[in-house]
Amino acid sequence: MVRRFLQILLSCLVIVGYPAFALADEAGSAALTPLNLTGHWVGYLAIAIFAFAYVLAMLEEVTELRKSKPMVLAASLIWAFISVIYVADGMSALSGQAFRTALEGFAELFLFIMVSMAYLNAMEDRGIFENLRIWLLSKSFSYRQLFWITGWMSFFLSSVCNNLTTALLMGAVVLAMGKSNKRFVSIACVNIVVATNAGGSFSPFGDITTLLVWQKGVVPFGSFYSLLVPAMVNFALPAALMHFWVPKEQPAAAIEEPQMKRGGITMIVLFLLTIITAVCFENFLHLPPAAGMLMGLTYLKFFSYYLQKTPGQTALLNADDIDMPPDLIKKQDFDVFEKVAHLEWDTLLFFYGVMMSVAGLSFIGYLGFASNFLYDQIDPTVANILVGIFSAFIDNGTIMYAVLTMHPDISQGQWLLVTLTAGVGGSLLAIGSAAGVGLMGQAKGLYTFSSHLKWMPVILVGYFGSIGIHFLLNQRFF
Q1: Keyword set for this entry (predicted)?
Q2: What phi and psi, each to the nearest 5 degrees, are found at residue 116?
Q3: Beta bridge mates, 331
Q4: Rounded distance, CA 362 to CA 119, Å?
């Protein structure tokens, strides 16, 4: 009984951060077998380093220490200690190849996210998101209407934008409309977090989890959209139950003059074209999606050159401005490299630290135990549901990378299931996703950990409802 308990406990620890790394040496240069260091002092020390660094990252709001700092240091120390052992045994080529293989995976992810963030920053600079917010504020919607509008908009926007950007945009609308009604702001923020996480789970571009799965190649691009209906259920069920607690009043409409800089609509079109390019590179040319995204970045770069070389106006929505004297018309001030410089570098480096740390811990030798228990000794469906629950406590990108690293022999239906559960499981707690953490900072005192926690039973209804719908509609994948 005690042994069984310890087995389950250790498997839980492994799935949240210590999966093994399947070394892929395509060139066949390394004929040696990796050392099993699970019982070695290096293995224990690496686990302690990773755990301590991850705790510091989770406490970022308290310590005010950027989460990337402890994670990058942890990755460096883990691989340094591993290399000490392999160099001493004359196997340095093997550890070096393992590090480069892991680094290649991160590089593809980094380049993909870099281009996406550059486009989002550019569109924000053009005032696209601000115009959306002003439009919603000008329509005099009731609280209940705004609850559903911001929810569905969050759902669909997060399928192409990252969930943090979407949550902050919709959160700004909710805060502006619900200044005098704290109850509305609290429940609307919960709804936005659930919607953004659900919306990102059915699109390869919507969340770090789906992006990792797509880049790994275990689920084809088109198959992700079979999760659309389960994802809609995941959002709609909790929203329908929370609807009755949303105030019926109508807030006062705010009147602001919309301002959009020149080129905003064109950038939206170029971003969609970039996504299409990435899909074509992967599906037809069998090149990494990051290669297509980098080609798409050149679309934005050439367009920025056009804006810099041609005269334009900052805003084109005010008819009186069109007849401005020529000496008042300025060249459009836009630099694509400035948008790249303002990326979320802390987030990108955090993912480097996580992925390289997990790869190092995996290379030490935890694959056999974790994979055997989670996907052989218990049912894969139960294992994948547990993965989703774990993602409420640990970053879902880390969870998904752990599962992909173990690479269990499961059907495509089960891969889709774990993609869904890891994506939406973060909605169970406010700290389970970037959207929740971001909104807690934006709506301090109105949306908190405890205010989200009281709706967890309702969110669980949507969680298990989406799983049931997936099995009902996607039987062909199992």
Answers
A1: Antiport, Ion transport, Membrane, Signal, Sodium, Sodium transport, Transmembrane, Transmembrane helix, Transport
A2: -60, -45
A3: 311
A4: 34
Q: Quote the distance between the C-alpha of residue 315 and its chain's center.
A: 33
Query: Cβ–Cβ contacts within 10 Å for residue 87, how many?
Result: 12
Residue 284 and residue 13: Cα distance in Å, rounded? 39
Closest CA to 407 of 134, 180, 216: 216
157 CB-near residues (< 8 Å, 6+ apart): 166, 169, 170, 196, 199
DSSP-assigned states of every residue in 231-266: HHHHHHHHHHHHGGGS----PPPP-------TTHHH
Taking phi over 0 as left and psi of -120 to 50 as alpha, with beta for the rest, 252 belongs to beta
Say how far apart CA 436 and CA 192 lie, in whole Å.
9
CA–CA distance, 384 with 405 (Å, rounded to integer): 15
287: tokens are 């090149």
CA distances in angstroms from 345 to 17, 53, 66, 215, 352, listed in the order given: 22, 18, 10, 21, 10
Task: Return the closest-CA partner of residue 153 out of 164, 141, 169.
Answer: 169
What would you measure as the largest C-alpha separation in the chain, in angstroms? Answer: 84
- List the structure tokens of 47: 């686990």
Residue 384 half-sphere exposure toward CB, CA atoms < 13 A: 26
* Domain edges within the chain: 104-314+332-356+365-477
pLDDT tens for the chain, residues 1 to 478 = 434 433 433 344 343 343 333 333 333 444 578 787 878 888 889 989 988 988 887 777 678 788 789 989 999 999 999 999 999 888 888 888 989 988 887 888 788 778 877 887 788 788 777 787 777 777 778 888 889 999 999 999 888 776 777 887 788 778 777 777 888 888 999 999 999 999 988 888 777 788 778 878 888 888 888 999 999 999 999 999 999 998 888 776 666 666 778 888 899 899 889 988 987 887 788 888 889 989 999 999 899 888 888 865 444 444 344 444 444 344 446 666 666 666 667 777 877 888 788 888 888 876 556 666 777 778 889 988 988 888 887 767 767 777 887 777 888 889 999 999 988 998 898 777 778 877 776 677 788 778 888 999 999 999 999 999 999 999 888 8
Tokens 């798409």 found at? 296
